[in-house]
């Protein structure tokens, strides 16, 4: 967040609270529940995999901090990290497509990637996620301000 240098510390703190409240409100409107997530996966399977990828369950989880999603082909379950909540829809759709593709091809070989090419925003979404990972690695300097 960019804050004008002329703001006092009190104004800055108030402005940050206002903006964070706005972002939280936007995110709560955009966050899908598990039922909506499962419906979204069904639509994506129809659109990109001819309906062949049929998960038995699709849900958000909070225990995945090193991966964006996971799939267990043997039981048809797909889990997406809660860290995706609030990210652009095309990114969530990409991760869903990635996991749906695993229901058809378990590994990450050439056949898997050819299948995933059906989703047109694959490269863009992968770039976005790589940027998030890179930003997480940057050192945080307490009190630093962008001017």
TrEMBL record:
Family matches, as InterPro entries: UTP_pyrophosphatase-like, YgjP-like_metallopeptidase
Taking every annotated instance into account, which residue ranges of this chain make up the domain YgjP-like metallopeptidase?
Answer: 35-129
Determine the domain of life of the protein's source: Bacteria
Transmembrane regions: none
Q: CDD domains, alphabetically?
A: M48_yhfN_like
PANTHER family membership: UNCHARACTERIZED PROTEIN YGJP, UTP PYROPHOSPHATASE
- The protein here is known as YgjP-like metallopeptidase domain-containing protein
């Amino acid at each position: 967040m960019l804050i004008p240098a002329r703001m006092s510390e009190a104004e800055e703190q108030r402005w940050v609270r206002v903006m964070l409240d706005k972002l939280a409100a936007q995110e709560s409107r955009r966050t899908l529940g598990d039922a909506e997530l499962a419906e979204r996966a069904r639509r994506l399977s129809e659109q990109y995999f001819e309906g062949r990828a049929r998960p038995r369950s699709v849900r958000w989880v909070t225990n995945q901090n090193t991966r964006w999603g996971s799939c267990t082909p043997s039981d048809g379950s797909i889990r997406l990290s809660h860290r995706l909540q609030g990210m652009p829809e095309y990114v969530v759709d990409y991760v869903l497509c990635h996991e749906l593709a695993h229901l058809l091809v378990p590994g990450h070989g050439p056949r898997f990637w050819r299948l995933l090419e059906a989703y047109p925003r694959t490269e863009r979404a992968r770039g976005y996620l790589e940027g998030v990972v890179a930003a997480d690695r940057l050192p945080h300097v307490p009190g630093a301000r962008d001017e």
